[in-house]
Backbone:
């Protein structure tokens, strides 16, 4: 069994708490993304799963096996680091062969198959020194993957590669995981990477696990304003205002139909769920207009510091400063506590 159980995991560096009481279950064969901004504790969590760092408190189990005290070499995990580690004095083939040869296993046809999968076949006999960053990253992944670890850990493996190659690798990594059915933990600060590849995403901020769910659950029902603003491009619109008699009000906004108590709240809705119309719940001047290609994005200025992005047709034309009416009924809206940012009921079903 290669399920991973993190039980009340805590990591402190001196007085600083890098990870606050993390409980998480990763199923056998699952692709889990750890997502969050720089410094939120992703690598710290990953290093503890790998056995490179010892937890301050808590336990780590692989299936029924408690590995908390087991050294990295005996955990049976494959690890691709944030900064790839390649033997530059060796050829591509020697790098791929290395792990299996160290175990006394003849790589046989495995090297050729892995090279084929990662598009490295033509480069097998080239020295690694001098290869592009894109290729080296691919090689680093291949070198770990060839060992067919039951648990495969990747820490921002695509952060150094260019955008076009990243898109290709997203597809390839997903295919690799499907083929070997490993339990995969993938660290990234790129929400698009997490959304496109993972079975489930664990969103972290400041050493605290914010939400765990499928990409769709997290996109559709963010647990708090942090998750709402971290997932999606553009981020979810978040508008401070208040509920009065079941209606949300803020400068330029009046939305009836909420089942929430009177008081200050933060309203959320996604740019693509609202619609430019002849009349609507929002009436506000256009602050900016951007063509995205398949669509365009109008940003409305609501209060002095409050804005809302609205997706429109690619040929939609409007002057900056012109007043725009937008349909944003309660059924597309989310409500969050004005103080804590936690999701409230009474809005989107
Ligand atoms: N050995 C250490 N000693 C002291 N503080 C550390 C140590 N390792 C990490 N930290 C701190 O713990 C916090 C979490 O670090 P971590 O490397 O896990 O973040 P991360 O989410 O992986 O960020 P990034 O996206 O930048 O890689 C950071 O504030 C970091 O400075
Ligand atoms: Mg990191």
Residues:
């Amino acid at each position: 069994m290669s399920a991973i159980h993190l039980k009340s995991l805590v990591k402190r560096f001196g007085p600083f708490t890098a990870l606050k009481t993390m409980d998480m279950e990763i199923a056998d064969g699952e692709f889990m993304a750890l997502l969050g901004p720089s410094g939120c504790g992703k690598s710290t969590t990953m290093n503890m799963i790998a056995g490179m760092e010892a937890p301050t408190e808590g336990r780590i189990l692989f299936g029924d096996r408690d590995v908390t005290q087991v050294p990295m070499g005996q955990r049976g995990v494959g690890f691709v680091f944030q900064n790839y580690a390649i033997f530059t004095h060796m050829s591509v083939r020697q790098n791929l062969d290395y792990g299996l040869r160290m175990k006394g296993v003849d790589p046989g046809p495995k090297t050729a198959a892995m090279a084929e999968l990662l598009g490295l076949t033509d480069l097998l006999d080239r020295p690694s020194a001098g290869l592009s960053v894109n290729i080296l990253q691919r090689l680093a992944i291949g070198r770990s993957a060839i060992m067919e670890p039951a648990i495969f850990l990747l820490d921002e493996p695509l952060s150094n590669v260019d955008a076009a190659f990243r898109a290709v690798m997203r597809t390839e990594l997903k295919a690799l995981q499907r083929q070997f059915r490993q339990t995969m933990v993938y660290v990234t600060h790129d929400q698009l990477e997490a959304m496109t590849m993972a079975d489930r995403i664990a969103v972290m901020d400041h050493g605290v696990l914010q939400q765990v769910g499928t990409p769709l659950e997290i996109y559709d029902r963010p647990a708090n304003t942090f998750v709402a603003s971290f997932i999606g491009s553009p981020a979810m619109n978040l508008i401070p205002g208040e509920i009065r008699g079941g209606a949300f009000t803020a400068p330029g906004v009046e939305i009836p139909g909420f089942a929430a108590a009177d008081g200050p709240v933060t309203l959320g809705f996604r740019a693509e769920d609202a619609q430019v119309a002849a009349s609507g719940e929002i009436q506000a001047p256009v602050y900016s207009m951007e063509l995205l290609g398949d669509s365009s994005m109008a940003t409305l200025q609501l209060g002095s510091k409050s804005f809302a992005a609205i997706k429109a047709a690619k040929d939609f034309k409007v002057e900056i400063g012109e007043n725009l009416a937008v349909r944003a009924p309660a059924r597309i809206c989310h409500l969050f506590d004005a103080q804590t940012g936690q999701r409230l009921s009474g809005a989107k079903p």
